[in-house]
């Protein structure tokens, strides 16, 4: 039975802060995520190398070195706890034995760190979604579905605390929608295909999480959708206002995981997280300035405003002047979190949150849509319907309206072409009916039917 | 009255309906179809390219211009022998084995086609032997490979080695790109060029075509 979210989880905007959420999650090690403290979430990856039977031992050694290094640094800097994210590489999902082996190495090292340093840790295991390896993607069965589930299941049984994924349902249509800045197709990709796939996928993942002891289904990320839009916008390829709207229309898709039973913390690169926290009350992970080793973003500070874990996204094992990059990432995250937590202890959490917001919000429309008050206003409207497609369409309408108002009032820096693009998007959104199937029938002739299989989405 | 300047402006504006009217009018007047292509359609895209590079046009607008150019091309192509079709050169492009990322690759294809190159898209997750087979079949001047993962970037290296093994490496220039890829990596594995993004890749290919064919190649 899916959960329903028909009201905000907060009554007061001042309660909507980092480190605390109405529904905190407690890990096996005793970390209470969303319970008042912001924890660092460290992620890392291999340097450039092939993965196969002859190199997996080397890969395992590298992962072992990374985890030992980052946990040692975490202990040296007295962090109250560390969330480790293990986001698999494609080879690790395609060959689950590789993925499982690395997950076990990380869990063992975390146990050793608990004994050696008394360090509290938890692990989020994030198998990557290989279903799109089939072209067109096969979403509900087949080799890639089976290997992905095998990796999820064994990781849960081996002791993972959280499971997450950056799922890709609808991406095959969204990719071209992004480069053409076609908001209708993007709404179809996220609001119809994405939401339908999330419902199917997360029903399964919540069941799998239940196989483990105190393992939680944590949440998804629209990384391949909204973060791709952000990167394209940063390169000057598409308008920033388009990327900002894509960010918010990814919210109903992300919400589906929580309707199915996910409890957070949501994925770090899911910048739609603040909306999820406002609606569900579940803790969220975010990333920003300290993820600069992975990618540029215009939301480096504001991303932390209501975060419950603070991530570096990912960094490969390469040597920097001081240390290996993941250790450097760990240190940076710990100092970010220390400052936020010190502000909380000092009774200045709200002041600090608002500084994080103020330092970014006026400089980019993508930051502006993450302002807590904007998040509240839009979220309050989205919970008025339970139809995920209609929510997606509403998210687009509401974001366009918010941005037009903000630009007209001079509240956010804008490009001279932004208003033209907002008008264009509004016109396109106005042509979309309120019913998902009616929209599908309407847009069918514009879709490249070689790129997706409707039945894989229950269409 | 239809003029070549009108055609160029129409390409710049991305007006899909008007371009058909203008190009047909020039054909009806008896204008040389190659002149319509070079001085009208491609000339329009030659205005678009610098506007994109300077950040004054977005990709969707460039795509509209490219689509408009192609609409005009559809009318003039049947009037020209294939061998006479203006082209800067031929490039085959693919994302390497094990890697599914294709947005960057598709942007590159769009930019290359808009700039007068004939492009063969090999898709994503392209095996080493498939790159080799495509080189043998299509005889391109340039091979472009992309990778977005640290664990698939080495497939670029193995593809180059496969091109060497099959004796076709010297027939082509190899350009590479993708998030983890750098000029240093390109130098290490013996690629001929690296480009940070799709827009600079066109300049890179233009330079390579100049090395291969001389000045006439760049003027399409």
TrEMBL record, chain A:
Record keywords, A-Z: Methyltransferase, Transferase
InterPro entries with a match to the protein in the record: MeOH-cob_MeTrfase_bsu
GO molecular function: methyltransferase activity
GO biological-process terms attached to the record: methylation
Pfam family, one: MtaB
Protein name: Methanol--corrinoid methyltransferase
Species this protein is from: Acetobacterium paludosum
Automatic annotation (TrEMBL), chain B:
Entry keywords, A to Z: Cobalt, Metal-binding
CDD domains per the UniProt record, alphabetical: corrinoid_protein_B12-BD (cd02070)
Annotated B12-binding N-terminal domain residues: 1-88
Alphabetical list of SUPFAM superfamilies matching this protein: Cobalamin (vitamin B12)-binding domain, Methionine synthase domain
A Pfam family that the UniProt record links to this protein: B12-binding_2
Gene Ontology MF term list: cobalamin binding; metal ion binding; methionine synthase activity
GO cellular component: cytosol
GO terms classed as biological process: homocysteine metabolic process; tetrahydrofolate metabolic process
Domain B12-binding: 88-219
Record PANTHER family: METHIONINE SYNTHASE
Similarity-based family: Belongs to the methylamine corrinoid protein family.
Protein name: Cobalamin-binding protein
Source organism: Acetobacterium paludosum
């Amino acid at each position: 039975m899916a959960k329903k979210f028909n009201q905000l989880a907060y009554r007061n905007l001042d309660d909507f802060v980092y480190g605390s959420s109405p529904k905190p999650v407690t890990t096996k090690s005793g970390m209470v995520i969303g319970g008042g403290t912001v924890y660092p979430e460290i992620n890392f990856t291999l340097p450039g190398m092939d993965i196969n039977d002859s190199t997996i031992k080397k890969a395992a050694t590298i992962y072992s070195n990374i985890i030992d290094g980052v946990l040692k640094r975490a202990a040296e800097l007295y962090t109250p706890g560390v969330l480790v994210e293990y986001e698999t590489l494609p080879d690790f999902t395609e060959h689950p034995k590789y993925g499982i082996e690395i997950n076990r190495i990380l869990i063992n090292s975390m146990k050793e760190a608990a004994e050696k340093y008394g360090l509290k840790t938890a692990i989020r295991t994030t198998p990557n979604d290989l279903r799109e390896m089939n072209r067109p993607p096969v979403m509900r069965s087949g080799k890639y579905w089976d290997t992905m589930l095998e990796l999820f299941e064994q990781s849960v049984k081996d002791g993972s605390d959280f499971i997450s994924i950056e799922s890709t349902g609808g991406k095959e249509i969204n990719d071209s929608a992004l480069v053409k800045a076609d908001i209708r197709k993007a709404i179809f990709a996220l609001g119809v295909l994405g939401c339908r796939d999330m419902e199917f996928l997360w029903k399964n993942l919540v069941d799998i999480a239940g196989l483990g002891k105190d393992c939680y289904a944590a949440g998804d990320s629209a990384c391949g959708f909204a973060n791709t839009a952000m990167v394209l916008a940063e390169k000057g390829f598409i308008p920033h206002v388009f990327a900002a709207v894509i960010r918010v229309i990814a919210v109903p898709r992300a919400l589906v995981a929580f309707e199915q039973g996910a409890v957070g913390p949501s994925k770090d690169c899911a910048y739609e997280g603040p909306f999820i926290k406002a609606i569900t009350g579940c803790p969220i992970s975010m990333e920003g300035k300290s993820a600069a080793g992975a990618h540029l973003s215009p939301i480096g500070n504001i991303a932390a405003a209501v975060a419950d874990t603070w991530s570096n996204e990912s960094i490969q094992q390469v040597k920097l002047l001081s240390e290996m990059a993941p250790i450097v990432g760990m240190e940076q995250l710990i100092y970010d979190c220390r400052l936020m937590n010190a502000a909380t202890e000092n009774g200045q959490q709200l002041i600090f949150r608002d500084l994080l917001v103020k330092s970014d919000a006026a400089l980019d429309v993508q930051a502006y849509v993450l302002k807590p008050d904007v998040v509240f206003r839009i979220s309050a409207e989205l919970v008025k319907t339970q139809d995920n497609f209609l929510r997606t369409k509403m998210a687009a309408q509401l974001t366009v309206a918010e941005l037009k108002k903000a630009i007209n009032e001079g509240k956010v820096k804008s490009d001279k072409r932004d208003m033209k693009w907002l008008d264009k998007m509004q016109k396109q959104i106005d042509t979309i009916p309120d019913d998902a199937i009616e929209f599908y029938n309407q847009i069918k002739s514009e879709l490249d039917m070689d790129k997706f299989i409707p039945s894989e989405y229950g269409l | 009255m239809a003029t070549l300047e009108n055609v160029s402006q129409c390409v710049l504006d991305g007006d899909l309906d008007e371009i058909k009217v203008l190009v047909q009018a020039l054909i009806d007047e008896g204008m040389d179809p190659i002149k319509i292509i070079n001085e009208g359609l491609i000339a329009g895209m030659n205005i678009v390219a610098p506007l994109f590079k300077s950040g004054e046009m977005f990709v969707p607008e460039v795509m509209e211009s490219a689509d408009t150019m192609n609409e005009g091309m559809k009318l003039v192509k049947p009037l020209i022998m294939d061998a006479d079709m203006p082209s800067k050169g031929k490039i085959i492009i693919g994302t390497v084995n094990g890697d599914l990322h294709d947005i960057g690759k598709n942007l590159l294809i769009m930019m290359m086609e808009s700039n007068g190159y004939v492009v063969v898209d090999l898709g994503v997750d392209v095996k080493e032997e498939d790159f080799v087979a495509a080189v043998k079949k299509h005889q391109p001047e340039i091979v472009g490979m992309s990778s977005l993962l640290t664990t698939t970037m080495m497939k670029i290296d193995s593809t180059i080695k496969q091109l060497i093994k099959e004796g076709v490496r010297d027939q082509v220039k190899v350009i590479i790109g993708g998030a983890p890829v750098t000029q240093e990596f390109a130098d290490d594995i013996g690629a001929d060029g690296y480009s940070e993004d799709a827009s600079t890749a066109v300049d890179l290919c233009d330079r390579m075509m100049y090395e291969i064919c001389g000045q006439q190649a760049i003027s399409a």
